[in-house]
Write a structure and sequence with these properties.
Length: 519
C-alpha cells in the first residue's frame, strides 16, 4: 500500500492507484484476489485448524504528558494447533487491514510454526478492523507508528497465551512478522524493542518513507512487459497518456469536458482525479501479479496490451487515446457494476472531516507520516499522467482531513501541517540503513513489486552477516499467499529461519546469513 496499496501492506492493504482515496478500494479487491485470505490455506490440514479470537485491553496513549490509564479492546487471533513447549513464538503484526482467523492458517509464518511446533498470534493494528481506540476523527492523532509499536511491545510483555494445557507466559521472546507496512513494523519492533523481539521477518517492507515516490510509476512501466505485456504496449500507453495530458494541461474547459465524456467519466470533478483513475489502472497487476486484476473475464494486462491500437507502431497518439478511453470506460463500468454514482463517489477526492474507516486510517498515516505519493516521472514519458504531482497529493490530504488537527502525542498540542513527516520516520528508524543498526531481520522482496524500491535490497560488512536480504522473482507480500506455498523460494526463505531458530535454541553456534537472489 498503499499511494500505498497496500502495503499493504498492506496490505496495507494497503492501495495502488495514484489517487489516495480511490486507490485504497481497488487495492483491497486486488489484495483479496491475490492473497486469497481464508480461502487458500497452506494445506488441506491447515484449513481445519482452530484459530481462536480474543481482545486485549490495550493502552490508548503510551506517551507524553497526556498519557492516561484509558484502554481500548485490541483484537487478536491465536493459532496454537502446532504448539509444544519451547517452540517459536511468532507475532504476525496487522497493518492497514482487518485481521482474520484465516490469515493465520497460511503463509510462510504458518510454515515456520508448523515445522517447529510454534505459536502464531495475529495482532490487529489500532484504528483498523475491530480495534478502534476512538470513532472520532479528531482522535486520529493517536494513530502513529510509535503508538503501534508500543502496542505490540506492551501486548507481548503483559499478555499470557493459552495453548492447550500449556500457558505461554508474558515477557517471552518473540519473532515479529509482517508484510508491506506491517513489515516495516516488524523490522522496527526488532530495532526498538529487542528485549521483546529476538528476530523479525519483513516481507515487501517499504522502510524508507518518501514523499515523492516516482519509482513506483517507473516500476509499473518496467513491469508491464514482465507480466505478459510488451514494450509496444508500454510505448502505446505512454503516447495515450501524453495525449491525455496535453488536453488536461493546455486544453480549454470544453476540450477537458469532452475528454472526460470520451472516457465515460463526465462526473469526475477534478482533472487530476480523472487523470489518476485513467492512467494507473495496471498498477495492481504489477504489484500483486497479473492474476490479481481482471476486466471482462480476462487479465487486465491482456485487456490493455492485446489491444491492437495501443500496440500499433503506425497509428497516432490520438487513436491510442481513444483506445485507452474505451478500455478505462469498460473497466470502470465492470468494477462498479454499472453504478456510476458509486464510481464518482470513489474517484472524486472527498472533502473532510472524514468518517472513520480503514480507508480514513490509512490515508491519515500516509498524509502525516509516510508519504508514498505515487507521482509521475517528472522528466520522462510515463504511463502515469503528469498531473500526478506533489501538489496534487498534498491538496488531497488537506481536502480529506479538513477540520482534523494533527496533534503531537507527546504534548497533546496541535501542529499545523498535514504533510507527511518522512524525515522523522527515517531519522527514528534509519530508512534502508536499518540493516546497519540491528540484526536477525529477514528483508524479502519480489523483484517486480514496485514497493521493493523503498526496501532494504543490499547490505555490506557486518550488516549482511547479521541479517538476510533476499529478492525473489515475485510480487508484493507473496510470502503470505496460500497459493504460493509450493514455490521453491518459499523453501529457501524457510531455510534461513532454520539456521536462526537452531541458533536461538542453542543447537548450533553462530549463523550464516547472506544476501541472495532466488527464483
Amino acid at each position: 500500500m498503499k499511494l500505498l496499496s497496500a502495503l499493504l501492506f498492506a496490505v496495507a492493504a494497503s492501495s495502488v492507484q495514484a489517487n489516495i482515496f480511490s486507490d485504497r478500494l481497488l487495492a483491497e479487491k486486488s489484495r483479496a484476489i491475490h492473497l486469497k485470505l481464508d480461502t487458500k490455506p497452506s494445506s488441506l490440514a491447515s484449513a481445519q485448524e482452530v484459530v481462536t479470537e480474543h481482545f486485549f485491553n490495550q493502552t490508548v496513549n503510551h506517551f507524553g504528558e497526556v498519557k492516561g490509564n484509558e484502554t481500548y479492546p485490541q483484537y487478536y487471533v491465536v493459532n496454537a494447533n502446532h504448539y509444544k513447549p519451547g517452540g517459536p513464538l511468532v507475532l504476525d503484526l496487522g497493518g492497514e487491514w482487518t485481521v482474520t482467523p484465516g490469515s493465520e492458517r497460511q503463509g510462510l509464518q504458518h510454515d515456520f510454526i508448523a515445522k517447529y511446533n510454534g505459536l502464531l498470534v495475529g495482532l490487529e493494528h489500532r484504528f483498523y478492523g475491530q480495534s478502534y481506540p476512538s470513532q472520532d476523527p479528531k482522535d486520529l492523532w493517536l494513530l502513529t507508528v510509535e503508538q503501534a509499536l508500543a502496542d505490540a511491545n506492551n501486548f507481548v510483555k503483559t499478555q499470557d497465551f493459552k495453548a492447550g494445557n500449556v500457558t505461554v507466559k508474558a515477557g517471552s521472546k518473540w519473532v515479529a512478522w509482517g508484510g508491506s507496512y506491517s513489515a516495516n513494523l516488524a523490522a522496527w519492533a526488532r530495532l526498538k524493542y529487542p528485549q521483546s523481539f529476538w528476530a523479525a521477518h519483513a516481507a515487501s517492507g517499504p522502510v524508507y518513507a518518501k514523499m515523492d515516490f516516482q519509482e513506483y510509476a517507473y516500476s509499473v512501466d518496467v513491469g508491464i512487459p514482465q507480466i505478459g505485456g510488451s514494450q509496444a504496449c508500454v510505448a502505446g500507453l505512454k503516447q495515450a497518456t501524453a495525449a491525455l495530458d496535453k488536453i488536461l494541461l493546455k486544453g480549454n474547459k470544453k476540450q477537458i469536458k469532452d475528454l472526460q465524456a470520451l472516457f465515460s467519466l463526465s462526473g469526475v470533478k477534478y482533472p487530476s482525479d480523472f487523470a489518476s483513475w485513467s492512467t494507473t489502472f495496471l498498477a495492481s497487476s504489477i504489484q500483486y501479479g497479473p492474476k490479481s486484476s481482471l476486466v471482462n473475464n480476462q487479465l487486465a494486462i491482456d485487456y490493455y496490451c492485446n489491444n491492437s491500437v495501443i500496440t500499433s507502431s503506425k497509428l497516432s497518439a490520438n487513436d491510442k487515446l481513444h483506445a485507452l478511453a474505451s478500455i478505462v470506460g469498460n473497466a470502470t463500468l465492470e468494477y462498479f457494476g454499472g453504478d456510476m454514482e458509486a464510481a464518482y463517489s470513489t474517484i472524486n477526492t472527498p472533502v473532510g472531516p472524514p468518517t472513520m474507516s480503514e480507508t480514513t486510517s490509512w490515508l491519515w498515516q500516509v498524509c502525516t507520516e509516510f508519504g508514498y505519493w505515487q507521482i509521475s516521472l517528472p522528466y520522462a514519458p510515463s504511463t502515469y499522467s503528469k498531473l500526478l504531482t506533489d501538489p496534487y497529493f498534498s491538496w488531497q490530504c488537506k481536502q480529506i482531513f479538513k477540520g482534523v488537527k494533527v496533534i503531537d502525542p507527546n504534548t497533546g498540542r496541535a501542529v499545523d501541517s498535514h504533510r507527511p513527516n518522512t524525515d522523522k520516520i527515517n531519522k527514528n528508524y534509519f530508512g534502508t540503513d536499518i540493516i546497519k543498526h540491528t540484526d536477525h531481520i529477514v528483508f524479502a522482496n519480489g523483484q517486480i513489486d514496485p514497493w521493493h524500491t523503498l526496501s532494504v535490497l543490499k547490505g555490506t560488512g557486518e550488516s549482511i552477516k547479521k541479517n538476510v536480504v533476499v529478492q525473489h522473482f515475485g510480487y508484493h507480500c507473496d510470502e503470505f499467499s496460500g497459493s504460493q506455498s509450493q514455490a521453491a523460494w518459499r523453501g529457501q526463505l524457510l531455510a534461513f529461519w532454520d539456521k536462526w531458530w537452531a541458533e536461538f535454541k542453542g543447537k548450533q553456534g553462530g549463523y550464516q546469513a547472506r544476501a541472495a537472489r532466488i527464483r
